[in-house]
Sequence to fold (320 residues):
Amino acid sequence: MAEKGSAPLPCQLIWSIIKNMNSAPPTPKGFRDIAPALAKRRREVMGKIADTLEGVEFVPIETPTLEFASTLTGKYGEDERLIYKFKDRGERELAMRYDLTVPLARYVATYNPPFPFRRYQGGQVFRGENPQKGRWREFTQLDFDSVGTSELTEDAKVIAVAIKCFRQIGFEKGVMLINDRKNFADFPPEVTRAIDKLYKIGENGVIDEIVKSGKSEKESTRIVERVKSIKPTQSLLEIFKILKENYNLKDGVDFSFDPTLVRGLDYYTGSIFEMKPSNNPADLTIGSGGRYDNLIGMFSKKNVPAVGFSFGIDRLLEIL
Fold:
């Protein structure tokens, strides 16, 4: 209250004082607190996944939240702009990890574990993107990877184990969509980036995106039709056979070929896959992965094949 004889305080200032008295500081946009009930549920789900992975010979590791910026840059294509980068007091360029795969590649190049090295890791990752439903700037991933073999049996193993994990936590109707990045070897990057948005912006939106890259509308339409008519590669046919014969999984029920699946990250080299809560490809993705045979070699200077999968814990829990 103003003192006797003094001018009254403006309403806006009074409101500001009251607000500051009754509210705590906010979290930065895209970051959040996790309340007890959700924190407990997260722990339960991640525990079930970890138990399943350890039952099939995957072992845990942990890597730092911060890496040198040079470790992360040059690995994610146009998504590199989403990396949180800054300088420390020693003027060193640091970055918060964008995913758990590139840190794994650095780990393998550093310690040279015996192959096949099958590891899993859960942790927070950070991306400076626009927050929206089911998407935060800080979120939790749980990854598992098999490093050191290019055998297609390992691709099938990763896919089958991922499906098993989803079944264990309650996704009885989840379907793994599968494709091969080799199907897009002849497509320029701007076209694959457009195709990757198919279920977000629709077919007409994809055609418009390709037109913006310099193609005619007729040519852009022909490209989309060509993508839709893509058939499984020989590698995929072999993977599908292993999934059915070795893991008793059913085509069209547990997994399905999707010719339009691209996966945006530049490091994928072979099979790519995304888990959907139903057989609708337009559903939100709740986990994804693929083969990346060149990434670790960027650090170790030798060929080290790898294939892996990442669970999006926050989106997964939201759908559950």
